[in-house]
Design brief:
CATH architecture: 3-Layer(aba) Sandwich
CATH topology: Rossmann fold
Order of helices and strands: HHEEEEHHEHHEHEEEH
Number of strands: 9
Number of domains: 1
CATH class: Alpha Beta
Radius of gyration: 34 Å
Helix content: 25-40%
Number of helices: 8
Largest sheet: 7 strands, mixed
Strand content: 15-25%
Oligomer: single chain
Distance between the termini: 121 Å
Shape: globular
Length: 270
Amino acid sequence: MQQHTTHGPHGWLRSPLGERLYSLECKLAGEALAQVFGWQLLQIGVWGDDEALIAEARTQRKSVLGWHGPQPNGSIEAPAMIRSRTDSLAIASDSIDAVLLPHTLEYEPDPHEILREVGRILSGEGHLIVLGFRPLSSWGMRHLFARHGFPPGIERLIGERRLRDWLKLLGFEIVDARRYLFALPWGAAASPEGFFERAGESMWPLFASGYMLKARKRVYALTPIRPRWRLRPAVVGGLIEPTTRMNHDVTKGRVSDAAQSGPRPAHHSP
C-alpha cells in the first residue's frame, strides 16, 4: 500500500489552494449526506486532517478508514479511526449504510477492487458518494504535465462517464451528480460561496474541474415462477373421460361421414 510524503495530498491541502478546495468539498459532501440516514457511515481514504467531510452526516455513527501512520521521516499523516487495507476491507458484508470516497479511487493502486469491496459492505439501498477530478479540465491538464501528479500524490484521474459505467456494472444506480471547481489550479481557488462556484454548475458545467457522484446500491427481489402443470384427463371405468375437445372432434367426424355417404334412398312399399 502506497505511503504519502509531506508533499502528498494531505500536506498540499494545507496550502491556500488546497484549503479552498477542501472547504468547497466539505460543503458539497455535507449537502449530499443531508438526505442519507441509517446507522453507520464510513469514509474510505483520508482526505484532510479532520472529519470535516462527514461532519454533517445524519447517521448514528461515522468513521474514517485509512492506512496512514507515522512516516519514516517523522512527519505525521492525517489520523484514521480505522486502519485496514482498502482493497480488502476488514468489515462485515451488508453492514454499512453509506460510504464516502474522497478522491480515494485516484490515489489507490486498484480502484476496481475498492468499488467491489464497497459493493460488498454496503447494505441494500445504501449510498455511495464519490469525489473526483475531471481529466478534461484545467486541473486535469496540470495533473497531466506535473511531475508528481496534481494534486501531489494523485496517480490517475477517472472520468465521470467511465465511473458511471463501473458503478452500473456493479449494480449501482446514479441518483445525483454535481459539477464543481471552476477556478484555475493556480493561486487560490474561488470561495465556495463565490459567484463562479454558485453559477458555474448551471451556466458552464463543461468548465468544471471536479465532479461528485451519488449512487445507490440496488437490490432486486426475486419472484419465484411456479411451473404450469398439465392436468391429465381423468380415467373413468378404464376409459378416458371425454373432454370438450374430444366431444367436438367426434361430433365433427360424424357430420363428415354423413356428408360423404349422402342421402339414403327412399324405400317404397310394393
